[in-house]
Structure formats: C-alpha cells, structure tokens
Specification:
Layout: H1 8-24, E1 42-43, E2 49-53, H2 58-63, H3 70-81, E3 90-93, H4 107-124, E4 128-131, H5 134-140, H6 146-149, E5 166-167, H7 173-178, H8 183-199
Parallel strand pairs: 2-3, 2-4, 4-5
Antiparallel strand pairs: 1-3
Helix pairs in contact: 1-4
Length: about 230
C-alpha cells in the first residue's frame, strides 16, 4: 500500500469527483425532473484555464459530457489552434442540466447551480476563466456586453492581483456555427487567449469568486438559439 501523501492535484480530483456525485443527485431546481443525465464538467483538475459555457444541449444531456456536439468539435479545433487539448483544460457550464427545448437557463436555475460552479473553480484554481457566450459572461460580469469585451482580459474583481483568476470573454462556438461571420472573430480571440496564457507566470494560480447573475440578465422563456451546445 502506498504511503505517499496526496498531492493538491489528487485532492482536487477527488473533490471534483465528489462534486459530480452531488450534482448527479441534485434536485434543487425543476431541471432535475426533465434531465436525462447531469453534466458536471470534465478536464484537468489542475487546468490553468476553465471554459464556462451556458447549459447542456440534447447531446450533452444524453452523454453526460459538456460540448459533445458540433460546438464541441469546433471548441476542440480552437483548442488545437493554440496547442491545447481538452485534457489540458476544464470545461463546465453555468447550469448542470439541460433546460427543456434549449431555452435560456432561468435565474433560479443558475442560482441553484452556482455553489457547484464556485466549488469547482475553487478546487481547480485556474489562472483564467474563459466564458463562452453572453450568458456565461453575465454570471461573472452582469453589466458587461460581450460585443464590447470579447477577446481580451476583462477587468473584473475576482480576487487580489496575481491571486485571482482573470476573466477572458469569448463568443460561444455555437454562435460561430450559427453565424459564420463570427468564426474569424472567435479564432482571433482564441489566439489572443493563447498569447495571454503564454505570458502568465508559470508558478501563479488563481482562485475565482463567482458572482451571481443579475436576475434581469436572462430571459425566462427565450431559447438560446446560437448558444446551444
């Protein structure tokens, strides 16, 4: 039997597994009654960057994996363009269950999942939180407009300088699939993220504090359109 002490990576991995089990049994909002599977997230427990999407779609609901469809394939391509893979990052959503008919997640649903997201970020301690789309951005920066802040670090109070994660807003891959004119923008923004990551000190990790989304930031009945995974 090994007597080696658990590393911080081991502890984070164990905590993330525990969280996934808690998420699987969660009934804090009505989405629990319509889901097929929960989608807690996946990736490296020591990832320097966490990508935060909006909500699972139909394929994610079936597989239990985030970004399992066409948006995920584009995300994989974008990661490859900056010499990264899924195993190098962590991918989550603001809510862990699929909203019916791909509608927007409601404020109460986001609030129910917020403690899970915050605990995931605390365990991973990423240097960068890359939000995918306007709904994910609004969780951390309710007043920010994606069209104005995408593709660069966003000055958001996520913790003391060099000890808190940096917010880096991006368009959602599905938006680029829905509107092809956005794809070059998303590709440039991902390249900018790669350049920003390359500039970060290698021995500094951050811890993010989740901000609740403003209750007026989300429509309760609209569908996500170009942001569905």
């Amino acid at each position: 039997m090994s007597t080696e002490p658990a590393t911080s990576s081991d502890r984070a991995a164990l905590e993330l597994v525990t969280l996934a089990k808690e998420i699987a049994s969660c009934t804090l909002c009505d989405l629990s009654s319509t889901r097929t599977q929960t989608v807690p997230g996946e990736g490296s427990p020591t990832a320097s960057v966490v990508f935060v999407g909006e909500a699972p779609g139909a394929r994610e609901d079936r597989t239990g994996r985030p970004f399992a469809g066409a948006s995920g394939r584009l995300l994989d391509d974008l990661l490859a363009s900056i010499a990264m893979r899924r195993t190098d990052v962590y991918i989550v959503n603001t809510v862990k269950c699929r909203p019916p008919d791909n509608r927007n997640p409601r404020p109460a649903e986001i609030a129910a999942c917020a403690p899970f997201l915050e605990r995931q970020l605390r365990q991973i301690q990423p240097r960068v939180i890359a939000t995918l789309g306007r709904f994910a951005l609004s969780v951390f920066a309710p007043e920010a407009q994606l069209g104005e802040v995408h593709g660069r670090p966003f000055a958001q109070t996520l913790g003391p300088i060099l000890h808190g994660a940096t917010l880096f807003p991006l368009y959602h891959p599905a938006a680029a699939l829905h509107n092809g004119s956005l794809r070059p923008t998303l590709e440039r923004d991902m390249a900018a993220l790669g350049a920003f990551m390359a500039m970060l000190p290698r021995d500094v990790a951050g811890e993010a504090t989740l901000r609740q989304a403003d209750s007026g930031s989300h429509g309760s009945g609209a569908t996500r359109g170009g942001e569905a995974e």
